[in-house]
Amino acid sequence: MLLRFILFFSFINCYSQNKTEVYISKYSDLAIFEMDNYNIPASITLAQAILESGNGESKLAIEAKNHFGIKCHNWDGEKIYADDDLKNECFRKYSTVSQSFRDHSLFLVENKRYSSLFMLSKNDYEGWAKGLKKAGYATNPRYDKLLINLIEKYNLHTLDKNTDSQQKIYFAHSYGLPYLVGSGVYIENNFGTYACEVNTSFYLSESNISYHHKLSYKFYAGGGLGVLYLPTEDKKFYPHLQSELIYKYKSLLLRVGTQFIYGDLQYNIAPIFRITYLSN
After folding, report:
1. In sequence order, what DSSP letters do the residues of 104-133 get, joined into one string?
2. Residue 61 pLDDT > 60, yes or no?
3. pTM of the entire predicted model
């Protein structure tokens, strides 16, 4: 009987831990994006979200996309009601999880009782945890310890070292239209992505350099310039400009845009659709 209890408890603990790891994998980029914009440690944001939303499985998280338990306080948006310290309390409701993360950042930045936290380093997660408890973010007397335990258990503090100057270099392979295949090099930092690419098909080829600014943790927008090559009898080169919108999902980039080609061509505007895979 004791052995069954131990095995059952171990299974429940492992299952809960796996759910937390899935949540971290899903929202760590969003926490880092908020840190880059508002200087709130990503470890603190993520630990609060895990704790307040129950790994995204609380009623507030599911029905209202509210991952931080923020109540209505001077809120003009949609509302949802749930029991908390009191019955039927008013909480903020969002359309997306990213809105919840952004509102959490603004809630801390714009509320004077949290102003002392922004004098701390982004690497001082213990100071932030204790400061949130002292400022009354939650009523649980162990709130700071719960945050610190989560951060240290899942090494969330490593996210805080994602500095503005940190860069990642990727090799890219692209597939799409009008260029069937392509390859290039991408350099990514916290604000955007620089790229150098060569793309080709059976009847035309092009090379370009570009920059795409990070609009959110999944969307980029930007453009570049390059040269189009037509392997006809004249073997002509045509300069072009391009603009693109990119949606990033893990290592995949879904890209849509337009190339504006200068020269004596029948068509000077070409739509582009590409899927790009990034690898280290």
Report:
1. HHHHHHH-GGGGGGGGS-TT-HHHHHHHHH
2. yes
3. 0.69
Distance CA 237, CA 223 (A): 20
- The amino acid that residue 181 corresponds to is V
Residue with tokens 């990033």: 248
User: Which one-letter amino acid corresponds to residue 90?
Assistant: C
**pLDDT grade, residue 11 (50/70/90)?**
very low
Q: Give the tens place of pLDDT for each residue, 126-138.
A: 999 999 999 999 8
Length of the chain: 280
Q: Which residues contact 155 (CB under 8 A, 6 or more apart)?
A: none
Residues of the chain by 3-state class (helix, strand, coil), percent to 5: 40, 35, 30
CA distance 208 to 221: 16
φ and ψ at 213, to 5 degrees?
A: -85, 140
